[in-house]
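User: You have something folded?
Assistant:
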Amino acid sequence: MDCPEFTLFDRYPYLRLLTFVDIESSGLMMGSYPIQYGWCGFDLVPRQVLIRPLPNWSSTYFEPSSVEIHGIRRSQLLINGVEAEEVARMLNEAMRGGTAFSDAIAWDRDWTDRLFDDTAVEREFRLETVDKAFERIASICDPWCVERQEAIFERVDQIFPHVHKADKDCLRLAAMTRSFIDRPFSEWLLSTATV
């Protein structure tokens, strides 16, 4: 059975303005920069883009240990990456006027700020910790889903594992949050057999 369609946008239009993001980077140090940006809404359709390093984003700050985690090489970015300014505009287009939620807000805010600051593009969306997403949906949580959260989260971990790929990891955050408000989705999670 396929994942059920998200049907709550009509009842709660503000949910369209909530997005979940994940960023892969050149490393975990001062001077590191974003190399892959992923974003996903409650529709569970993830998007991602590789970012071509700007001239001042030095290879000095591209850690080999990061490549081992996310599998993205600097040479791949130089060939297949999208210009950083275009990425900033793309993110504004996708999330304009809304809020993006991250589970690693300190790093993701730094890398997002670096992208926008270094391209001189003004960011047109807010960035918050994923805990704030739960606050935004608290009034519409389904009690049936809340009662089963431990089992549901286990299924989210199996079906949407954390794999250090920006599109997959933002999808995981969106699925986890959606499971609090969308009973058909939570029922699907609990009934789906993993391979």
Observations:
- Residues 179 and 186 are 5 Å apart (CA to CA).
- The longest strand covers residues 18-25.
- The first helix runs from residue 64 to 70.
